[in-house]
């Protein structure tokens, strides 16, 4: 069964002086367990589309459904991980990862144990009583991932979650997130400006055109890459071939915008 469906979504931002259409006629389906990415020129509406999928923004036209049911604000089926970790500095790591469960009034001792176990599974041991300031940027992003996964969403939305990190930490987190989501059989949607990251982590890549954003092209990541870890995928010859194809298409879209 199809997990996530975006049907004829359009969104326009209105001000007193103007109306700017950010997205136009977005139509796509993401299957259960898929990892897809949104790529495109700056200002093409990638984050707007992610916010609509998250239920944070109601589209001007169109609908988004999960298993044929409309999404809604604070939808428990959706988890959202941002570029910044947004951990509360005055709360311990344990308090931070349980925050979503408590806000949704879904906290149980069993769910706490699952969250703490997941913290250990992603390499963070003996940190639950520490505070965010005592952890590195990469470690805080791992905590943010656990906080998101603690509510057990069926779909995880990732808005450039690694872009503020150094390259080595970024690669390690790509590996960790990919492995974790695969083991939990989660559906994931990544917004990124990094072509390599999209190829290394995705099954499909949706390339959005300039404003108003539309799906200009869909790239299917070859099976030989999807079977590898993100680090190993980057070493495969098929990676460079796909990278060049996406680069040329993206460059074409950006050139059209300048003209």
TrEMBL record:
An example molecular function term from Gene Ontology annotations: ATP binding
Q: Does the keyword ATP-binding apply?
A: yes
Gene3D superfamilies associated with the record: P-loop containing nucleotide triphosphate hydrolases
Q: Which UniProt keywords apply?
A: ATP-binding, Nucleotide-binding, Transport
Q: Which residues form the ABC transporter domain?
A: 7-235
Query: What Pfam families does the record tag this protein with?
Result: ABC_tran
Q: Which domain of life does the protein's organism represent?
A: Bacteria
Q: Which InterPro entries match?
A: AAA+_ATPase, ABC_transporter-like_ATP-bd, ABC_transporter-like_CS, ABC_transporter_ATP-bind, P-loop_NTPase
Instruction: Spell out the protein name for this chain.
Output: NitT/TauT family transport system ATP-binding protein
